[in-house]
Amino acid sequence: MLLIIPLFRTCLKMADSSDANLVGKLFFNIVQMKCFVLKPETVCVKRTWWNKCEKKIRRKRAHLRDNRKF
């Protein structure tokens, strides 16, 4: 989704037709589809009895964001 939405927007803009503009306005302005960005973060995967972190790993987590208007 990270790369697909900008490519979709670019494709619609480059088509420069009334149909492409209608689809772009519907998708980005009216339906307001959310996009997500994968960001790395550190998470605890093993804890002690006292809730202290014993083992951490880095993994990507999806963060939702709004798309720009068309």
Automatic annotation (TrEMBL):
GO MF annotation: an example: phospholipase A2 activity
Record-linked Gene3D superfamilies: Phospholipase A2 domain
Naturally occurring in which organism (per UniProt): Anopheles minimus
PANTHER family: RH14732P
Name by which UniProt lists this protein: phospholipase A2
EC class name: hydrolase
Domain Phospholipase A2-like central: residue ranges: 8-38
EC number: 3.1.1.4
Lineage: Eukaryota, Metazoa, Ecdysozoa, Arthropoda, Hexapoda
UniProt keywords, alphabetically: Lipid degradation, Lipid metabolism
GO biological process: arachidonate secretion; lipid catabolic process; phospholipid metabolic process
SUPFAM superfamilies the record matches: Phospholipase A2, PLA2
Source organism, top-level taxon: Eukaryota
Cofactor(s) annotated in UniProt: Ca(2+)
Name of a matching Pfam family: Phospholip_A2_2
